[in-house]
Amino acid sequence: MNRKQRRAAKSARPIGAAPVPSAIQQTRIALAHSARGDHTAAMRAIVVALAMEENAHSRAAFVECVRAMQFFEDNAAIRGLVLRALRENWGRPEDLALPAADLIKAAGTGIAALAHDDLLRALLCVTPNQDGALEDALMVARGALLRAPGQVPLEFLCALAQQCFLNEYVFTFPSEEQLLVARLEQETATALDHDAVIAPSQIAALALYRPLTDRRLLDRQWPADIDALLTQQLREPAEERQLAAALPQLTPVTDPVSCRVAQQYEENPYPRWMAAGLPATGTRERAIADILVAGCGTGRNAIETAQAFGSARVLAVDLSRASLGHAARKARQLAVANIAYAQADLLKIGALDRRFDLIEAVGVLHHLADPFFGWRVLLGLLKPGGVMKIGLYSAMARRDVAAARAELAAQGFAGTPHGLRAARRYLRARPKFTGVTQRSDFFTLSGCRDLLFHVQESHVSLTEIATFLSEHGLAMLGFDLDAPVLADYQTRFPGDPAAIDLDNWTIFEAEHPATFRGMYQFWVQQV
Q1: Is the pLDDT of residue 18 over 80?
Q2: From CA 292, how far away is CA 294, in angstroms rounded?
Q3: Quick one: 224 and 263 in the same domain?
Q4: pTM to 2 decimals?
C-alpha cells in the first residue's frame, strides 16, 4: 500500500471508528501473541502485517511466529509464505524445517505426492530435514528411485540428492541397495572412461547415496539441475580446499585435546548450512570496531555478526581448516568483506597482539577439558569495558544426551559413518530417547557425531557461571532465549525485569530442565 492509498483508506474510515493498526503495530502484535504462546493469533496478525507492508522486519517476524507452530493439515496460504521464506531467505532455513515438514506430510508422503511438492523441493535444497517421519518417507522414496529414477521429474531427483549431500548420507539403507549403488557407480565410471552417453537421472540416482567426485563430469553439458548438483558436490568443495590451504595459522595446534577435536571437525565440518539469517548491514552499534569469533566452525555465526556490525573488523578462528574453508567460501559467496579467517588454538590465542571490543565464544568452550580456562584466555583479549557472548552446555539440559551417549558406548557403537547410522536406528527404536532423536543435530552425520560421539564435551551449571562472573568482574547482560521463555521467567520472577539474576535462573531451570536445551547463551560485560 503506497502513501496515497494509505491516506485514502484513512479518510474512508467512519468517524469514531477505532484506528486500524499499522503494519509495524501488526508485527508487534504478532510477536506479542507468539511470546504468550497464542500461535493462531500470532499467525493471523503477521499475515495481515505482511499484506499491509512486506519488509525485512515483517518477514523475519513471520519466521519467528511460524517456527513455533505445528500443523496437522495443509494450509495453502501459510504453505505459500513458508515456500517464499525458504526461497527468499527470510531467516535461517532450519527454523522453517519443522513447520514445512508438517505441511508436506499433510499433503501426502507417497512418492508421487513428494515428487510434485514444491515446498519439499525447496526445503531439500537449503537445509537438512528435521522430522523423523519425513525422513522415513524420503528413505523409502530414495530406495524406489534408485531402482527406477525416471519415474519422477529430474528436479525432484536432484533436490533429494542435494538433501542427501547436506545430511552427509545419514539415511540407512539395506545391503541390496548397497549392491545396486556399487553397480551404478561402476557403470558410470565405465561410461566416463569410454566417453559414452550417461542419462542425467543416472547421475542423480548415484548422488542419492554418495557424493559425486569424478571431475570428468564437469567436462560434459548437463541440465541445470544436474549442474547444480555438480556445483554442490564438486566445484564448491574444491573451492573450499583451495581457500583452506591459503588461510594463515595464528597459533600451532599441539594440545592433545585440541588435536582430537580438530581431527573430528576435519572429518566432519560442523554445522552444515546453506543460508544465513542475515540482518541489514550495519544494524548494530558503530562503537564496536574489533570483534573476535572464537571457534567459528563453518562460519555462519561469524558471517551474521560481520553483517550486523558492518563497520567492524571481524577475526574468526577455528581449529579445523576444513570448517574454515567452508566459512571462507560462504563469506565470499555472500560478499562479506569485513571478516578474516585464520586457524588457531583457543588455548594459545592469548599471545595474540590484538584486543577486541566484542568476543563471541559460542559452541567452543565446552569442547575444552576446562571451559573456564579457555574463557580466561579470551578475557585477556577483551578491551576494557568490552562485551562477550558466551555459549556453554548446561549439565541439566544435556542429561538426556549424556544418557544416550552412555547407552551407545555400552552397546559398542562407534562414531564412524556406519556406526552413526546404526546408532541413530538404535535410538529411534527406543521411545525413552525421543528427546535426543528430535534434536536438530540428530539429522546429519556431523551433527549426530557432535551430539553423541564428540571426543571432548564438558557441562557446567549456572552456579559455576555465576562464580566465574563474580571472580572476574563481569556483569551479566542477559540470555539469548525465545520470547515465550523470557515471558515465563518474568511471570515467575517479576522483581527481575532484566532477567539477569542467576540465582533466579537456577530455580527456573530446575523447574523447567529443558530451558537451555541448546546451551546457555548469554552476554556479559567487563566492569
Answers
A1: no
A2: 6
A3: no
A4: 0.90
